Amino acid sequence: MVASIASASMRPETAGVEWLVADAPVDYETAVAAMEARAAAIRDGAAPQLVWLLEHPALYTAGTSARSEDLLNPGGVPVYRSGRGGQYTWHGPGQRVAYVMLDLTRRGQDIRRFVHDLEEWIIRALDRFAVRGERREGRVGIWVARGGGREDKIAAIGVRVRRWVTFHGIAINVEPDLSHFAGIVPCGIADPKLGVTSLVDLGLPATMEDLDNALIATFPEVFGGDAGESEYG
């Protein structure tokens, strides 16, 4: 049985934002419907901003820039069209997804800055594990240098903004089955020196709760003490 947005544990509010952690895997279509409803409520002033931490059952999503030739061999894993930006990616057990629903009318109405700050948030959270996550010009997401010219992606970013409220968000690999990424060209990048990694693949015995704690601790460093005192604008 998959969880809905209501089947989640609430964490203390951080940086003026509500936090929910799903208690069970969340079906993708259920998650999208819940995000859209929550984003509309935030826009109408009927609900607080939200970060929703969850896992999905194994699935592929195709963003608005996805190319059909990049779906190589889904192997029976379901594929969903997504309204987020980006190309193909995989979600599933062992990967922490953070859906971020913020009101940018209270945060400077700067989408590029919002994406940059999502990247910075991931980088600071990874630093708690002594992992150096880095941006790369022309490549979306956060990367880890592995030596010998090889770089592996550890986190993906795909967002949508509707009437200045954000949804979708980020995905960080904790301990997923990385072989699933072979079914697609992840984010359209086919260079053999560019792969995918995770915290556990890097030799770190991290848990999902460890990552959640790092994300919660570093969020206000990037997004400010509350919605009215953020680093935006």
Present the secondary structure layout.
Elements: E1 8-14, E2 17-22, H1 28-43, E3 50-54, E4 59-62, E5 79-81, E6 88-91, E7 95-101, H2 111-127, E8 134-136, E9 139-147, E10 150-162, E11 165-173, E12 194-196, H3 208-223
Parallel strand pairs: 2-3, 4-5, 10-12
Antiparallel strand pairs: 1-2, 3-7, 4-6, 7-11, 8-9, 9-10, 10-11
Helix fraction? Answer: 10-25%
- Report the biggest beta sheet as strand number plus sense, adding barrel if it closes: 9 strands, mixed
What fraction strand?
25-35%
User: What oligomeric state is this?
Assistant: single chain
Low-confidence stretches: 226-233
C-alpha geometry = globular
Would you give an account of this structure?
With 233 residues, the chain is of the alpha+beta class. The protein is 21% helix and 31% strand. It contains three helices and twelve strands; from the N terminus they run E-E-H-E-E-E-E-E-H-E-E-E-E-E-H. The strands form two sheets. Strands 1, 2, 3, 7, 8, 9, 10, 11 and 12 form a nine-stranded mixed sheet that branches. A three-stranded mixed sheet has the order 5-4-6, with no helix packed on it. Helix 2 packs across helix 3. The longest helix has 17 residues, at 111-127. The radius of gyration is 17 Å and the shape is globular.
Short description:
This protein is of the alpha+beta class and 233 residues long.
Tags for this model:
nine-stranded mixed β-sheet, disordered C terminus, single chain, globular, alpha+beta, 233 residues, three-stranded mixed β-sheet, 12 strands
